[in-house]
Design goal:
16 strands; five-stranded mixed sheet; alpha+beta; single chain; binds histidyl-adenosine monophosphate; 2 domains
Length: 428
């Protein structure tokens, strides 16, 4: 095993961090359920074609970032780089258009992209996403944006900026695209090599290139929202009206194009400060053609996904770790006291209390040290005297030295009730 390390861009989550993850996932599930969304769990592996067809052959994700391999039967499989494609596959496969035409789903879990790792960008990362399938009207876009903003805010991240754009539809985008290519051609000597290539295949992507020179060219480019057809313009106007009504501030970013090909009409990103270049904590948009592209009926849809690793980076900068139930620690001396301690712990755990002992069974002093190190709130002392009297000595590790509660004896048969009451008081 010597020398074998975790894979680059992937990380272990140790218990001190897991507390954060469990808390985050719990809060997010709560918010989604409050909006009427049900949890969808799909496999981590899908057929490669699912992603290349939906995300787009000429996107960075499909061209260079997928973890793809040949299965034993020769079929090509890919570790999911995102959740929308799987959700749509499931919608089609389970005949949801008939069973529940308007489906509201959320999901959480790991995604895989072979990107260059840096702060906030990993090769295995976790997303929480939500998809609303079956509704074409702007109310759906507004609901999704509200859910995105509320989800991130529920985790304590309120200093965010919402950016909004419309990418038009199959009726108006081709003409815009042509106009954009004409403009880009006039400036092509200033574009980077990647953008020269993008100009042919995916010209909209030139708009969000990070290179300084391309940036300058993009600044003067025609804007999609000036080229929207009447239907798209009306849709966008109504989405903005809904956001205004909810007092969700946003600004329009004419150059937000998103890195996945399935989008049309509304697209949005939620940005947080202090994360460097990886500042998008959530993003999404409308994808009305995807269900059909993947072989299903014509079903409109909209969704978003939030990057939990990035959100956590922000949270751990300032917030304190989510609290756990207070810890009870039993310190015992002698064989008989140890057996009694085991029985008491069994009862306490069954009653829902969080209790530990130092299983190394060292000296009283060593056990006390361990209790302190583990952050015990109460230490229960059990030795010959306590056994004889049928009591337990309880030390409150946070009570002041002269407090009455510092050390007291509680009858063994009242111990569980007493500790439950105290635990509830602390957790309040
Ligand atoms: P996306 O913009 O590719 O959209 O990813 C959404 C979020 O996932 C990003 O804003 C970011 O916070 C996080 N993220 C993406 N890549 C990484 C990475 N390598 N490391 C850490 N975090 C990352 C989608 O995935 C769409 N499926 C969203 C969607 C759902 N659209 C409609 N429905």
């Amino acid at each position: 095993m010597e020398g074998i390390r975790v894979i680059r861009g992937m990380r272990d989550i140790l218990p001190a961090q897991s507390i954060w993850w469990r808390w985050m996932e719990g809060r997010l599930a709560e918010v989604c359920e409050r909006f009427g969304y049900g949890e969808l769990r799909t496999p981590l592996l899908e057929q490669t074609a699912l992603f290349s067809r939906s995300i787009g052959e000429q996107t960075d994700i499909v061209e260079k970032e997928m973890y793809t391999f040949e299965d034993r039967d020769g079929s090509m499989l890919t570790l999911r780089p995102e959740g929308t494609a799987s959700a749509v596959r499931a919608y089609i496969e389970h005949n949801m258009a008939r069973a529940e035409p308007v489906s509201r789903w959320y999901y959480m879990g790991p995604m895989f992209r072979h990107e260059r790792p840096q702060k906030g960008r990993y090769r295995q990362f976790s997303q929480m996403g939500a998809e609303l399938l079956g509704v074409a009207g702007p109310a759906a876009d507004v609901e999704l944006i509200e859910l995105m903003v509320e989800s991130v805010a529920a985790l304590g991240l309120t200093q965010t900026t919402l950016e909004l754009n419309s990418l038009g539809c199959t009726a108006c985008r081709p003409a815009y695209r042509d106009g954009l290519v004409t403009y880009l051609k006039q400036h092509d000597e200033r574009l980077c090599e990647d953008c020269k290539r993008r100009m042919q295949q995916n010209p909209l992507r030139v708009l969000d290139c990070k290179q300084e020179a391309c940036n300058k060219v993009a600044e003067g480019a025609p804007r999609m929202i000036d080229a929207l057809c009447d239907d798209c313009a009306q849709h966008f106007f109504a989405v903005r009206g809904g956001l205004d009504g909810l007092k969700i501030p946003y600004h329009i970013n004419h150059r937000m194009v998103r890195g996945l090909d399935y989008y049309g009409r509304t697209t949005f990103e939620l940005l947080a400060e202090g994360l460097g270049s990886q500042n998008a904590v959530a993003a999404g948009g409308r994808y009305d053609g995807l269900v059909e592209t993947l072989g299903g009926p014509k079903v409109p849809a909209v969704g978003f996904a939030a990057g939990l690793d990035r959100i956590l980076l922000k949270l751990t900068e300032s917030a304190e770790a989510p609290s756990q139930a207070p810890l009870i620690f039993i310190v015992s001396r002698g064989e008989a006291a140890w057996t009694k301690a085991l029985q008491l712990m069994q009862g306490m755990r069954r009653a829902g209390l969080r209790v530990m002992s130092d299983v190394r069974q060292g000296s009283f002093k060593a056990q006390m040290k361990r209790a302190d190190k583990d952050g015990a709130r109460w230490v229960l002392l059990l030795a010959e005297d306590e056994l004889k009297q049928g009591v337990v000595t309880v030390k409150d590790m946070q009570a002041g030295a002269d407090s009455q509660d510092k050390q007291q004896q509680i009858a063994e048969d009242q111990l569980v009730d007493w500790l439950k009451k105290k635990t509830e008081e602390v957790e309040k």
